[in-house]
Sequence to fold (604 residues):
Amino acid sequence: MSFHLARRKAVNVIMLSLTGLCTLFAAGTLVFILGYLFVHGAKSLNWNFFTKLPTPVGETGGGMANAILGSAKLLLLASVVGVPIGFLGGVYLAEFGGSTFSFIVRYTTDLLNGVPSIVMGIFAYTLIVLPQKHFSTLAGGLALGVMMIPIAIRSSEEFLRNVPLALREGAMALGASKSKAIWTVVVPAAKHGIMTGVMLNLARVAGETAPLLFTSFGNRFWSPGWEQPTAALPVMIFTYAVAPYDDWHQQAWSAGFVLLTLVLAVNIVARLILSKRVVAR
Amino acid sequence: MPAATSTVISARPPGRATSFAARLRAGDEAAYLITFMSAATVLLVTGLLVFELYKNSSVSRAKFGWSFLATSTWDPVAGQFGALPFIYGTVVTSALALLIGIPLGVGAAIFLAELAPPRISDALTFLIELLAAVPSVIIGLLGVFVMIPILRSVEPAVKSVLGWTPFFSGPFYGVSMFSAGVVLAIMILPFIISISREVILSVPGDQREAALALGATRWESTWDIVVPYAKKGIMGSIFLALARSLGETMAVTMVIGNEPKIHESLLAPGYTIAAVIANEFTEATGDLYQGALIELGLVLFALTIVINGLARLLVMSHEKGTG
Fold:
């Protein structure tokens, strides 16, 4: 009997330590990624990276200024497409939604969120690139914008739902119409949360590469306006990483470092804001 | 997740008949219409997505029919397109990712939910969820320049033990289905961990207390009582992870070797649906070639939709079950 007990206790200790090891591995991976990128990316990062165009193959130096601007333009377009639709859709689900239609919208939103990013690229390609017969910033922005919609809807809905019912009742008791109550009381109360959600959403699509490969394509020069192909930071990382030149690999590390720093900084700040608000309430 | 409580309040004050015009003036109808249209856009976009994929793959669908899914010749020059090597590569790499990812992920979720003090658990979960925010192309970058050299150096040792199985036979160049599986496993870990942890945390405390009171060890109460209770939710998280790994593009493209052949050995290069679209779409000349790639997109879309749909239903039914 005591042998049996000893065995159970041993299993207990072994299995529980194993779960600890699993956690250590998962958290360690992130620390490793950060550390490695920091060491390798920061090494060759210099001011030229932010101000110069890429140099032709064989010439050292140069930077990715056009890709940084390109990414910014793509994100701007994506927000124009994704944020209004997502926000208003979230208002519908939180404030107006009935049962069946809302369920269908929610379910479809979740499914749309799970559509692989490369398929979103094909979608934007068939909608814009195919009729126009050329790659453009516009097509890339649309692809990223459509990807933003599902998360924008669900996060707006969630933050609006978190606003206490009493606030709505208070506003309506004072004689406000329902829409007035929503726009002047409920939405302002959820404003910070919704904006943080948008930031997280942008950080997510900022790193997307696959939908840009055949929409905004890539460009080694500046891309004026919205109708031409443009470089973007994630696509540059891909192109440079798979190319056979050491100099390009170094540039890819630098670009990876810049991209990851931006994405993680936004994530950390946004999550801290959110957790603080939860505690404060 | 959809909250069960509905916060809908009637726009119309009770006992007073409000005309449509009055409500329109108050902005209620306008607000309703605008937000309704935005919500309906989601349905529209999804419908349009299916339509575009279907329409633009018509050339390929008409020429190959269902045999597209069952033949394994991919020869753009001869105009022969079969999707089997890509479907095979996609399924094998995702299966491998789950094989590695499930034990690690569920193990970590158990630790974070059952053992770690709340403060440490929150901090670690924060870290692990940040891992999900790392762009796929950066994981790929590390995969190419860091993971593959490591795998190359441990390969002889692995081969001396497992080399007799067909899965670990043949030469190893670094880029392989195995490398892709490992990269995918790392990418799906945060999803399995954060959802499973939530699900395990939502198991009522008296379940644990009852088990412990009966003399169960901590592990027994966790493994025999808590985990079965949370089974549906954990399955849901695994399906979500599977859907993600099936559609994952950049990191896989960078480490899988991109060879459209079916190899038994995991150490051989392969190709996935997402990777072939990423690599060949811009150079696809002719309607048939492009149609075949778009049809691959349609296949991938259908696959992820089905799995995601199942996952959502599982997570939802867990939430209903625990109230």
Observations:
- Confidence is low (pLDDT under 50) at residues 1-8 of chain B.
- Chain B touches chain A through 97 residues (CB under 8 Å).
